[in-house]
Amino acid sequence: MEFPDLGKHCSEKTCKxxxxxxxxxxxxxxxxxxxxxxxAAHKCPFAxxxxxxxxxxxxxxxxxxxxxxxIPDVVVGDHIDRDCDSHPGKKKEKIFTYRCSKEGxxxxxxxxxxxxxxxxxxxxxxxxxxxxxxxxxxxxxxKAGCSPMTVSESRPxxxxxxxxxxxxxxxxxxxxxxxx
Length: 180
What we know:
Layout: E1 8-9, E2 18-19, E3 23-24, E4 31-32, H1 47-50, H2 72-82, E5 98-99, E6 108-109, E7 135-136, E8 139-140, H3 158-163, H4 168-171, H5 173-179
Antiparallel strand pairs: 1-2, 3-4, 5-6, 7-8
């Protein structure tokens, strides 16, 4: 051997290969061959100090700064507990914000349902003009979708309307008269 001091053996326990161009790990300060110089290849115990990745909050998608020596999972957890804007436990956005204008009704809806005649906001149960006793101007409103003809004027179904239980047929009377 002409150069006995040239090269170094790989510090990996299973390798120990003589390498003439060894790479020194900047975290653990040991020499490694080309196959084991990465942090993952030699399972470097100090890799978290040098292998810098910027973690991103999974809730608000903002990058979280991590100082050297800190564990990223702990820092992200602290961010979620203190600084995160979209933390599910911090503030709840109200979904049902539109309150019914019908007197005595306390229901709230997700969507605004405005009456075209009186411009009041109503819940699903009171959205139709007849359900909230809507009076546009001085004349009462007629049934939605019906002609101005009253149910009593429709004689072909007069007997049916009086015999039907619960008044359902009276509500649907205008639809039956249209079909005939």
